[in-house]
Each structure stands twice: as C-alpha cells, then as structure tokens.
Design brief:
23 helices
Length: 492
C-alpha cells in the first residue's frame, strides 16, 4: 500500500498544523479574552448556541426593535451541531471550531493537490499557501462567522469529487450548504466551474450539473420560503432587501438588473457606487490582494474564476463599502479557490523545476500579502486586533482579568444589557441586550474604555449619565474603568 506521506513531509505537516493552530489561537482566542469580540457577530451566535444547547429555537433579544428567530436572519443549520460542545468550551466554542475548521480545510487542499500532482512538496506548499492566505487571518481576527466553516468544506468537495467518491462528496456538499444561506449559491458556481474543469469526463460533468441545480433549488427554497416563514412578519430575505439596493431589493430585481444592464453590472465590480470618498480604493485593494495571493494564475484556468463570481458580486455590489475590502470575514471564500486553483495550474506545468519554483513563489506571495494586510491603513482598522507579534495585542488599557472577575457578579439567569464587547461573554442566557437597549434588563454593564458603538460618544455619555443618576439603579461595581449597575427591586 502506497504511503500517504513521506516521513519528512509527515513531520513537516504535523509541525505546520501545530504552528498554525497556535498562531490562529493567539489571534482569535486572545482577542476574545481581551474583549475584542462583539455583540455582532459572536454575541449573536453565542446566544443562538445557548438556545440550541437547550433544545429550542433562538428568538434573539439582540435583534431589536423586535425579536427575530436567528434562522430568519441567517439560516445556519450547521451551528446547531456544535451546540453540545458549549458545555465544554463555553463562550470560546465557536472560535475553537472555527480554528479547527481552517486547519481541516488546509489539509483538504493538501489532499486534493497531492492527488492531482503526486508531489509531496508541491501539495505541502499548497497547504502552506492556504494557511498563509490573508483572508484566513482577516476572518479569524474578527469573531465567528459560519461562512468560514462553509469555505473549509470546499477543498474536500474537490478531493472527493475528483476521486468520484460520490457518497463522501454528497456528505461534504450537504455540510457545506448547511453552514449559511448564501453557501448554496456559491456552491452552484463551484459546481458550474467544476463541470467545465472536468468536462471530458461524462460522469463528473453530469454529477457537477446535478449538484449545481440542487444548490440553486436549495438556495431559492431557503431564502424565498423558509426564512420568510420563520420571520415575524414573513419579511423577505433582509440581506438582499437592505444590502444591495444598487442592483435591486429582491432576488427578482437583481436578476432583472443583471440581464438588462450588463454594462452597469460590469462597472459595479470596479466603481464606488456609494458616493462616499472613503470607499474609493477598497475594491481595488481586494483585486490586488486576490491577484497576488494566487488569483493571477486563475486566468490560465478560468473555470476557477467562474467559482468566484458570486463572491466578488456579494462584496462589490453591497451598499457598505467596508465589505469591498480585505477586512473581516468577507474574503474567506477566496482562500480555498485561490489555493486550489493556483496549485492546480502549477501542477499542469510541463517543467518539473518550474513547478517547484512557481509553488515557492506563490506561497511566499501569500505570506507577504498577509503580512501587508496587518498594516492596513484604511478606515476602522484595529491594528491591536491583528498584530499577534506586538505587545498591545495581549493587553488593554484596563485590567482584563479584573474585568472577567467583575462579570461573575452577574447571575447566570439574570437579564443583562451590556456594551458590545461584553455581550459575547454574557450571551449564554435567555435575555441579553446590546446597550443602549435595556428593556427589562436587571443589570447594565459598560466600560469607559470601550467603544461607544452603536452610539456616538456624546450620546453614550448622555445615556450613561441617565442611568448612573437614576434612582432605579444602583452600582454594584465601579472600578477598572468599568461599571455594573443593578436594577433596584421594589422590595429593596
């Protein structure tokens, strides 16, 4: 039986996985400990996880002004499978699985490239290229997002699809489209690209077309029927209704715009359609990073570019210019396609020496672009959240350990209104609100050292003064730039 790895590559892989597990943990878990995770989105997901662990749907109190079933906002079934682990890992559960998923995805890249190249070195470099990819780091430094999990199944789908292991391919397909409501749309384009990539093989061509059609059907079913049915007023899918007015406020309007205004659609991929000067260079930033992180090789195999069409569209057509750039989790889907696609091209080179040279160069560029992303100078970039190699990533302007102890003063079953960075740590309860929403909260938590979001600094100061001077609230903690207020009961 052929050995799966050479001894040297096996040792290098073990070292690489351990190394990146540590790096990713320093990035993600340290940020959570240091209160650099937020109500949106880890707080939302943790509150949903808590409800799923108690065998009920999540009518999320963080979604105001009215309660909404979280599945009506983001249809994320896969998260339910992780709920039992919250009893072990607490509020870190989703972050831990997110890191594990990235490591798993990188191994999938290795397996696929190893299968098509028969080269240990090139396939290992492909794995490193993936782990270095800037979109991995930008996603892991900002909370938890289920599309990160979904993206990590993609290399494994390539692997099992290539081997024609249809049962495994079907399982990976189901898991991938269950992670988030937009994943089946992406998978439709992945399968369309795969049909072109494997066009000469009738079995794979037919299978990819079937998967493509199933993906489209599932996507339409979820966003047109299931999610509106779960919403309070059977509202249409909010991500399209509110986020893409440049192309339409419904799926039908978007499709009409695409087919009737192709020139306008093409321009949207490159032009700042919001009118704010702050967004002028964000789209170009993404294109440069994608091209230099392996994307330039995809022009040799444009089948992989087909797979990225919905990813570019969901970024560049959005009303929020921050989503156009390289920040947060909005670039994670580029990682598996760029790594798999670039190294697929490299494996098809005729000259063995050039294969190795190209693999080293593209891997180095992936690392270089990630390092460059740590020095982003654009709006709303928090260097301390990104730079694990600097002291301030591991500390705040206040005593973090003391703040964690202070949160223990709040009973587990209490209703709480908390400032955004404290919400993920307090979300394992029935009622949690993001300050300044208070409603029927029994405790209020805030810190003068944290951002005033979603209020301006002036509005935040006014709100705090009102509660601090109210006869209905008393201070049970005021230290370390942090305040905890408790509602005074009539019996007290």
């Amino acid at each position: 039986m052929r050995k799966l790895f050479s001894d040297s590559t096996s040792r290098l892989q073990i070292f690489a996985v351990i190394f990146f597990a540590i790096v990713y943990s320093l990035l993600s878990l340290v940020n959570h400990y240091n209160f650099r995770t937020y109500a949106y989105d880890l707080g939302l997901h943790n509150n949903a996880l808590y409800d799923y662990a108690h065998f009920r749907f999540n009518n999320c109190t963080l979604l105001q002004p009215q309660l909404n079933n979280f599945l009506s906002v983001h249809f994320e079934l896969f998260t339910i499978l992780l709920a039992p682990f919250s009893y072990v890992f607490g509020t870190y559960t989703l972050l831990i699985f997110q890191i594990a998923a990235v490591l798993f995805g990188g191994f999938g890249v290795y397996k696929y490239i190893r299968e098509i190249s028969s080269s240990e070195k090139i396939s290992f470099l492909a794995q490193l290229h993936f782990y270095f990819f800037y979109g991995i780091f930008s996603a892991l430094n900002y909370d938890f997002h289920s599309n990160v999990i979904g993206a990590m199944f993609v290399p494994w789908f390539f692997y099992f699809f290539h081997l024609k292991k249809w049962k495994w391919a079907a399982l990976i397909f189901i898991l991938q489209i269950s992670t988030k409501e937009n994943m089946p749309l992406w998978m439709a384009f992945i399968c369309a690209g795969a049909s072109l990539l494997y066009w000469k093989d009738k079995t794979q061509r037919v299978a990819s077309v079937i998967y493509c059609l199933l993906s489209v059907a599932y996507f339409v079913f979820i966003i047109k029927l299931v999610m509106p049915a779960l919403a309070n007023q059977e509202e249409s899918y909010g991500q399209i209704r509110d986020g893409y007015t440049a192309v339409g406020s419904s799926l039908g309007e978007i499709l009409t715009t695409i087919f009737t205004k192709p020139v306008y659609i093409f321009k949207l991929f490159f032009l700042n359609h919001t009118g704010t000067p702050l967004g002028d260079y964000y789209k170009m930033e993404t294109y440069i990073f994608v091209l230099l992180s392996g994307g330039i090789l995809l022009f040799i195999r444009p089948q992989f570019i087909v797979m990225l069409i919905p990813i570019f569209a969901q970024k560049m057509f959005h009303n929020d210019f921050l989503k156009w750039g390289i920040g947060d989790h909005y670039s994670i889907e580029f990682a598996p396609i760029c790594s798999v696609g670039a190294f697929y091209v490299i494996t098809k080179l005729q000259n063995e020496k050039w294969k190795i040279y190209a693999a080293y160069v593209i891997t180095f560029l992936s690392l270089a672009m990630s390092i460059r992303s740590f020095d982003n100078s654009y709006t709303y970039f928090d260097r301390d959240r990104h730079r694990i190699y600097q002291e301030w990533h591991y500390k705040r302007n206040y005593d973090v350990a003391e703040a964690h102890q202070a949160l223990k003063l709040i009973p587990d079953d209490a209703k709480v209104s908390a400032q955004s960075p404290f919400v993920p740590h307090l979300a394992f309860r029935n009622y949690i609100y993001q300050f300044p929403v208070v409603n029927d909260a029994e405790y209020i938590v805030f810190s003068y050292e944290e951002s005033s979001y979603p209020l301006t600094k002036q509005s935040f100061a006014v709100q705090i003064a009102l509660f601090m001077n109210s006869t209905e609230w008393k201070k049970i903690y005021e230290k370390n730039q942090m305040v905890i207020l408790k509602k005074i009961r009539s019996s007290e």
